[in-house]
Amino acid sequence: MADYKQSDVVGTQWNRAYRVLIQNPLGGIPSVAFSEELAINLGSNTITQPSRTLVAGFSPTGEIQLINPETGDLLNSTMSHSELYVALHSLYIQLAKERDDANTST
């Protein structure tokens, strides 16, 4: 039996991270988990489907090769896991203080 209203389609597909979960357990090793999805563009419609999860622990000596998110080109620099940890900690403290200041002024 033929599929109802079957038609051929042309499009593109790619993998992307759609969610990042950072865990910082008290007394444990911080880790990051990237939830991936398959994105399928069919011209006027994009469909996404969850696929896999990548998990890695932070390492004091680990390095990240930086990549331009617009072009995918490798940048001529790296960032250590420790620098990323400091940046995330700083963002958390900044946002928490902004929230607390807003709550104090109301």
Commentary on this structure:
The longest helix has 25 residues, at 81-105. This protein folds into two domains: 1-57, no CATH class; 61-106. Strands 1-2-3 form a three-stranded antiparallel β-sheet, with no helix packed on it. A two-stranded antiparallel ribbon has the order 4-5. The chain is extended and about 65 Å long. The model has no long low-confidence stretch (mean pLDDT 94). The N and C termini lie far apart (66 Å). Strand 4 and strand 5 form a beta hairpin. Helices cover 24% and strands 44% of the residues. It contains one helix and five strands, in the order βββββα. The protein is an alpha+beta fold.
Summary of the model, kept short:
24% of the residues lie in helices and 44% in strands. The chain contains one helix and five strands, in the order βββββα. Strand 4 (63-67) and strand 5 (74-80) form a beta hairpin.
Average per-residue pLDDT, rounded, comes to: 94
Compressed to H and E, one letter per element, the order equals EEEEEH
How many structural domains does the protein architecture include? 2
Measured on Cα atoms, how large is the radius of gyration?
A: 20 Å
Q: What is the CA-CA span between the terminal residues?
A: 66 Å
- The class by helix and strand makeup works out as alpha+beta
**Number of distinct beta strands:** 5
Helix content: 10-25%
**What is the 3D shape?**
extended
> Which residue ranges are poorly predicted, with pLDDT under 50 across at least 5 consecutive positions?
none
Number of helices: 1
What profile does the largest beta sheet have? 3 strands, antiparallel
| Beta-strand residue percentage | 35-45%
Strand order of the largest sheet: 1-2-3
